[in-house]
Fold these 2 entries.
Entry 1:
Amino acid sequence: MENEQLQRLVESISLHEFQKTFRHAAYFNPRLRTTGGRYMLRTHNIEVNKRYYEEFGEEELKGIIRHELCHYHLHLEGKGYKHRDYDFRQLLAKVNAPRFCSELPNTRAKRKPNKILIYECSLCNLQYRRKRVVDTARFVCGKCRGKLFKKSD
């Protein structure tokens, strides 16, 4: 499927499901990684992740388009277009659009597990568990002001 076909598909879904015309651009964005699509507030264009079409097929693509069209039409009407808004949830249910898209395969495997770093005070032996690296030359123990050192893994 190419951008022209996507544009026609978005226009037809908008007309049949929402009874409203789609007057802006819809196209595939190859840079999208974590989402199926997005509605651009300033330009009113809709960008779609092509990988969802390739992995899951046309039905998943139609669901993503319906979801983004909910944002589109509500925003243009001046109603609540955000995920938490009542108007948005009502329209999602009305047109049977998914709230979230399916997870792409291998996306969980690429995420790094959170590594916990342990720092210990040299005076009072209090341990600090951190996800981010602490500059031990700059920071000291909050209890006794002793020097911190990184404990071996």
Entry 2:
Amino acid sequence: MSHDMLELVSEHRCFGGRQRFYRHASGVIGLPMRFSVFIPGQAEQQRVPVLFFLAGLTCTEETFMIKAHAQRFAAEHGLMLVAPDTSPRGANIAGEDASWDLGTGAGFYVDATQAPWNTHYRMESYVAKELHGIVTSTLPGDAGRVGIFGHSMGGHGALVLAQRHRGTFHSVSAFAPIAAPSKCPWGEKAFTAYLGPDQGGWAGHDASRLMAEADCPFPDGILIDQGLADGFLAEQLYPEVFEAACAQARQPLTLRRHEGYDHGYYFISTFIQDHMAFHAERLKA
């Protein structure tokens, strides 16, 4: 993967590092894809640990970089931050723009198995393989030190991809994740479309069901923050199901519940510093 295959859309000096936005022709997706990356100043001397952030429904590669205020802490810890877009764009699938929780902006970080989605909606392979390869070869990321976190749909993505790609991701955390997608309307809708109506095929993409079958996959722990004034908590998120699965799997979990905090980026920006420190500690050389 050579640098000329990445189109630099924009670059901004930021906390001694560089905030960049890229576009490239994705071999996995079969369409142009965009991602953002914060490269800390430390990367001028050596390869640095990488932290992937997976955003939630309707977001783009820009949302996290603009709203979370994470660059300051990434610079302090010498972490590269990478945020992919949340779906392919312009796949020309009938209905892909009909609702905000399916199709464009709602890829759910799975490789779809069902037509017509399976041609382009291959976000798991895109993040865990193609984009991971780009940031650890063309860009100065250290492939041996990669973590992943995310929010809502992206929190689901982080908890699932970390479990499905244990050799790739070495630390994992989440904000208000869709922790048991097989049980909630968002997950049922997306999984039915992308993976088919047979719920047997859903288990491998449900963080709680994966964890319930595991044995302490992340001995250094998992961190989750959840606001208790989150309007989606009762119907969509089910952190208590993941909590129970972690207990069953003897998986250390820090699940922090915060009075008064909602589902948005004011909540994320409040606790982002803790997540950056959590990953920096686990991604040390």
